[in-house]
Design a protein that fits this description.
Distance between the termini: 32 Å
Number of strands: 0
Low-confidence stretches: none
Order of helices and strands: HHHHHHHHHHHHHHHHHHHHHH
CATH topology of the largest domain: Growth Hormone, Chain: A
Length: 398
């Protein structure tokens, strides 16, 4: 089977629209959370509350993923994505100019963020519809690279803008980016009807479909293969700052990790044929953990950066799972399936950071990173039966 090319992917108008709006979303969200953390710190002088503010935008993924994901299939995708951008714009303006106390700022972010998994799921489920076959996998690779790059750009641009104009103006910039993204989506995407029928309440349907997805052995295996190695990766990355003594050098290592991810996604997505890409899933998943073991030797910033970059290049293992995941779930619940995939990933990363962080308190950051690497290898080997491609039946409708 011949693999798709970047030229073929970007030749699709709908993908260009999804790509452009996604970049605006990622950059805007990073600026938003950075500005909110600065705004809270300015009001409270509390590092703990400032950190909580930075993470507040991601916490609702857990609840939204558990109870609201069915909306991604029961409502038209373009309307959902536009609604998400407009909610983000209004939220940012309220955070910037409404003069809310800190508890209200955090509550607003948490409540409006409950629907973020739904908006992300609508976008993810639309991708295989506009990019059939192997083009879908390459499209996911492009979006993953854009996500890593967008986070770096967002942090750099957000930091510079915060220093120049302050947090309120930075939040206003995010609002403008969201409005631009909404306009791009409205003009660039055609209207499509909802994939699934509206039967029963959103919470009840979400719980039922989540149980159905997790009860299927093939789908459950693919979900776990996408989640579990990343639990240990998030734990290792969470220890980079204390490993380097809280110094700014940690930013160099984390930037190297983002670069390694981008290079791995690009190389495997573009140059590996579809069948090879799927065969590479297991060795790349093992690679995800091996370099972190080197932190037990106490490397300096240069080698720490190299090890982090090599490790995150292994994240390209997920590309070999994407086509199989799309084939495993029916179209009418595809949005919820992708939403469950993302929500579980977010939750697992938070759990991994907390667990490895607790371990680091006891044995030190370097050894904790090494343990996380070893755990990642063991999990990849335990999931070898899933990571090795094999034909399997599609999840039945009903």
């Amino acid at each position: 089977m011949r693999g798709a090319t970047f030229g073929e992917v970007f030749a699709v108008r709908e993908f260009r629209v999804l790509f452009g709006s996604f970049v605006l979303l990622i950059v805007g969200d990073v600026i938003k959370m950075l500005a909110l953390a600065v705004l809270v710190y300015a009001q409270t002088a509390s590092p703990g509350l400032s950190a909580a503010a930075y993470m507040a935008g991601w916490l609702p993924f857990i609840l939204g993923g558990l109870f609201l994901l069915s909306l991604a299939d029961r409502l038209p995708p373009r309307a959902l994505m536009i609604t998400g951008e407009l909610i983000r714009a209004v939220t940012c303006l309220l955070l910037a100019y409404a003069g809310l106390p800190v508890w209200a700022l955090l509550a607003l972010v948490l409540v409006t963020g409950l629907f973020s998994p739904v908006f992300f799921a609508a976008r993810a489920a639309m991708l295989p519809e506009v990019l059939p076959g192997d083009a879908f996998v390459l499209g996911r690779s492009v979006l993953n690279v854009a996500s890593a790059s967008g986070q770096v750009v967002g942090l750099a641009a957000g930091g510079a803008f915060l220093a120049f104009a302050g947090p309120s103006a930075a939040l206003a910039v995010t609002a403008v980016l969201s409005v631009v993204a909404a306009v791009v989506l409205r003009i660039g995407l055609p209207h499509q009807p909802a994939r699934g029928a509206a039967e029963g309440g959103a919470v009840r349907v979400t719980l039922r479909v989540n149980r159905r997805l997790l009860a299927d052995g093939q789908v459950r295996g693919l979900l776990l293969a996408g989640w579990l190695p990343c639990v240990f990766l998030a734990g290792a990355e969470a220890m980079v700052v204390p490993y380097l003594g809280g110094q700014g050098q940690a930013g160099v290592v984390l930037a190297a990790a983002a670069g390694g991810m981008a290079v791995g996604e690009f190389a495997v997505g573009r140059f590996a044929a579809p069948t090879l890409r799927e065969r590479l899933s297991l060795p790349l998943a093992v690679l995800l953990g091996i370099p972190w073991i080197g932190y037990a030797l106490g490397p300096g910033i240069v080698w720490a950066s190299v090890l982090a970059a090599v490790a995150t290049a292994g994240l390209a293992y997920q590309l070999g799972l994407q086509r199989r995941f799309v084939d495993a779930v029916p179209e009418d619940i595809r949005g919820q399936a992708f939403g469950l995939q993302s929500a579980g990933l977010m939750t697992g990363q938070a759990v991994g950071a907390a667990l490895v962080g607790a371990l680091g308190e006891g044995i030190g950051p370097g050894p904790a990173i090494a343990v996380a690497g070893g755990g990642s290898i063991l999990v990849a080997l335990a999931l070898a039966g899933v990571l090795r491609p094999s034909p399997a039946p599609r999840l039945a409708r009903g």
